[in-house]
Design brief:
264 residues; Rossmann fold; 2 domains; five-stranded parallel β-sheet; 51% helix
């Protein structure tokens, strides 16, 4: 639990928009205290961060590095099972509104329908509990089941893992639930930007999976732009920094088999 809460705190503090706000507030406080040089320096750092995020497409380059790590999968003739990772549903909004509320990663969910038809004998698993500290009683798997039913998937085939709070627990709890056997072929479905950390997590628990990346955010190469990106730039760094920091943290904790996992 401590590691889970710490990861949430670090995520909040590393959000570039939050960081800019804290720098500006800190700079203003220093100026109010009469420390002019230090205050101007801190405010200048905030402005420089905004310029970097708004002008240089470093976020896009960081996303592409992760998305290009695993190429699009050539599907095998036979698959024993398919694991879909959570993260595409907001269980809190779903609970409040009485209907499934999805986000931009919805391809994680929709990909399971054609895959289930291609592999009618494969075991299907959805792994996703609650990733929030204060709402552990509202599980994503509950609403994933509703979503699968709505799109015409036979939910009787889907095994629901609803206790995982992060990618590490996706790997551990799903492995313990389905007990994959040596020689079996299992597809792992998640967003392309999340695939390196996901594959590393599954390998670290002794489970070699076949990556099936979806939900691409970039075209794979830098796209020229003629507009400044101040509004978009700060927010877009949040997700990709979360992934890169997650890769470092998982490796240090022994939760991943490599710092930047790639194809075997």
């Amino acid at each position: 639990m401590a590691m889970f809460i710490l990861s949430k705190i670090v995520g909040i503090l590393s959000n570039p928009a939050n960081l800019v706000f804290l720098l500006v507030a800190g700079g203003w406080l220093l100026l109010a205290m009469g420390r002019q040089r230090a205050g101007r320096g801190v405010v200048g750092l905030a402005v420089a961060l905004m310029v970097v995020c708004g002008v240089i497409p470093l976020d896009e380059m960081l996303v592409q590095q992760l998305e290009n790590r695993f190429p699009a999968t050539v599907l095998p003739e036979r698959v024993d099972g398919i694991v879909v990772l959570g993260g595409a549903i907001d269980p809190g909004i779903s609970e409040a509104r009485g209907q499934v509320a999805v986000n931009g990663a919805v391809e994680r969910l929709t990909a399971l329908l054609p895959l289930s038809r291609r592999y009618p004998d494969a075991r299907l698993v959805f792994s996703g509990g609650s990733g929030t500290v204060l709402s552990q009683d509202i599980k994503e798997a509950r609403y994933a089941e509703n979503f699968f039913r709505d799109i015409g998937l036979d939910v009787g085939r889907v095994i629901l893992e609803n206790q995982s709070r992060n990618t590490r627990e996706n790997a551990v709890l799903t492995r313990d639930m389905v007990k994959p056997q040596p020689g079996e072929s299992w597809l792992l479905v998640t967003s392309a930007v999340h695939m390196p950390r996901a594959v590393g997590s599954f390998r670290a628990v002794g489970w070699t999976v076949i990556p099936y990346p979806v939900d691409y955010q970039t075209a794979g190469t830098l796209t020229p732009t003629n507009s400044l990106r101040f509004n978009f730039g700060l927010g877009s760094y949040n997700g990709v920094l979360h992934e890169w920091m997650g890769l470092v943290a998982y490796r240090l904790a022994g939760w991943s088999d490599a710092l930047l996992p790639g194809p075997n």
